[in-house]
Design goal:
By secondary structure, the protein is mainly β. The chain contains no helices and ten strands. The relative contact order is 0.25. It comes from Streptomyces virens. This is DUF427 domain-containing protein.
Length: 107
């Protein structure tokens, strides 16, 4: 870990919901919240709580030295809207295969 850089992962204490274009894409009371220095809190949702049937795998992959390599999924009108870390770094292993969205409603 880089000095001064910190990542924590813990269960969210509130339910989360993801809506895009009026359609619910995910709803969960089992999300994990990842807090990382210099970044907004991100909610990682178990795949069982996501409408995977609406998502199309993308060719996009990005690398983060703290989390690992991310894979992305798209909607017809929103490229790379969703990402996950299939093999995350050990410090954030809890987010393995959980999906994250840019816009999440926390209730």
């Amino acid at each position: 870990m880089t000095p001064g850089h910190r990542i924590t992962v813990e269960p969210s204490d509130r339910p989360v919901r993801v809506v895009h274009g009026g359609q619910v894409l995910a709803e969960s009371d089992r999300a994990l919240v990842l807090r990382e220095t210099g970044c907004p809190a991100r909610y990682y949702i178990p795949p069982q709580d996501v409408r995977l049937d609406l998502l199309t795998p993308s060719a996009t992959h990005t690398y983060c030295p703290f989390k690992g390599t991310a894979s992305y999924w798209s909607l017809p009108d929103a490229a790379d809207l969703v990402w996950a870390y299939p093999e995350p770094e050990p410090d954030v292993a809890a987010i393995r295969d959980h999906l994250c969205f840019y816009e999440v409603e926390v209730r």
